[in-house]
């Protein structure tokens, strides 16, 4: 492959990273969905799944031959360029989202609520067959989401360990269908803090969050893929319930700033439309690939 083609390929990956990052920073739109639409989802999951903790041993032992082989397996250039695009989008979007949350809280939270509810409905529709057990998992997810939302009212702080754990949970959402990592960060009451850290390029907080996400991906990717494969309906029902149960937090946060019913409904509808449009494009892509 010629250098020109390499540059063109990397530019395409970088642009995909920009789109993923722009969506990942908005609660309700999954960057994983954008990866699927743009044709790099399987490559991304394969690259993440190829990360091996044995690489650290090879590095410490000075076994460069094995380390180079590990890097080839990981598809490191792809991941680096993609993450550069995602990081760029995060930096560009963080200030915009913060301004919207400060100056237009009702509209912003209404929009987020529309995104989340539409995503939850679409996720539930992915379940192939409805059974009584499926509804039990749905109810369990709603209960867990409702209780988890209560964390937003607790003063758990923004210490580096808390940000590390938040990253572990949020970035794992990348490999879950229809689940937004930004939304999990919001549920854990770290969303605005991390936006501020991104805008200020506060490295300790950013590194702690990303490090947690990387460790979480390494540890949980294979397990989550297994659960989705062997317990597909149960997993999707639980995730749907989790999103529905925790959505009350968006309503509560928006209500603190104003009347969500009279002032927020156009933005709520806009959120529904955005998710519907993304889903339409995704289905068109899947049909063209079939």
Number of domains: 1
The whole-number mean of residue pLDDT values reads 83
The largest sheet is:
none
Number of strands: 0
Short structural summary:
This protein is mostly helical and 290 residues long. It is 81% helix and 0% strand.
Descriptive keywords:
290 residues; mainly alpha; 15 helices; disordered N terminus
Give an account of the 3D structure.
- The protein is an all-alpha fold.
- The protein has one domain.
- 81% of the residues lie in helices and 0% in strands.
- It contains 15 helices and no strands.
- It has helices at 3-24, 31-37, 41-49, 54-61, 64-74, 76-103, 105-125, 132-149, 160-172, 181-187, 191-200, 203-230, 232-246, 248-255, 260-289.
- The radius of gyration is 19 Å and the shape is globular.
- The two termini are 28 Å apart.
- The relative contact order is 0.16.
- Residues 1-5 have low confidence and may be disordered.
SSE topology:
Blueprint: H1 3-24, H2 31-37, H3 41-49, H4 54-61, H5 64-74, H6 76-103, H7 105-125, H8 132-149, H9 160-172, H10 181-187, H11 191-200, H12 203-230, H13 232-246, H14 248-255, H15 260-289
């Amino acid at each position: 492959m010629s250098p020109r083609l390499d540059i063109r390929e990397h530019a395409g990956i970088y642009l995909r990273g920009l789109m993923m990052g722009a969506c990942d920073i908005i609660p309700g739109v999954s960057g994983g969905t954008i990866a699927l639409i743009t044709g790099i989802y399987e490559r991304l999951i394969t690259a993440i799944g190829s990360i091996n903790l044995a690489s650290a041993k090879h590095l410490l032992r000075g076994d460069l031959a094995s380390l180079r082989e590990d890097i080839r397996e990981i598809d490191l250039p792809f991941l680096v360029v993609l993450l550069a695009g995602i990081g760029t989008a995060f930096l560009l979007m963080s200030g915009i989202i913060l301004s919207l949350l400060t100056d237009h809280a009702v509209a912003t939270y209404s929009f987020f609520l529309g995104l989340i509810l539409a995503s939850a409905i679409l996720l539930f529709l992915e379940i192939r067959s409805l059974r009584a057990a499926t509804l039990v998992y749905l109810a369990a997810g709603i209960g867990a989401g409702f209780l988890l939302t209560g964390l937003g009212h607790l003063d758990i702080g923004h210490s580096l360990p808390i940000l590390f754990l938040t990253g572990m949970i949020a970035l794992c959402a990348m490999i879950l269908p229809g689940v937004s990592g930004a939304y999990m960060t919001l549920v854990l009451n770290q969303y605005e803090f991390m936006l501020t850290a991104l805008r200020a390029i506060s490295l300790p907080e950013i590194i702690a969050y990303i490090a947690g996400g990387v460790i979480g991906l390494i540890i949980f990717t294979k397990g989550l893929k297994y659960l989705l494969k062997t317990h597909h309906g149960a997993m999707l029902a639980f995730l749907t319930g989790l999103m529905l149960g925790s959505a009350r937090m968006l309503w509560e946060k928006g209500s603190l700033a104003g009347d969500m019913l009279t002032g927020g409904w156009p933005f709520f509808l806009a959120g529904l439309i955005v998710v519907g449009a993304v889903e339409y494009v995704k289905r068109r892509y899947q049909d063209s690939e079939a």
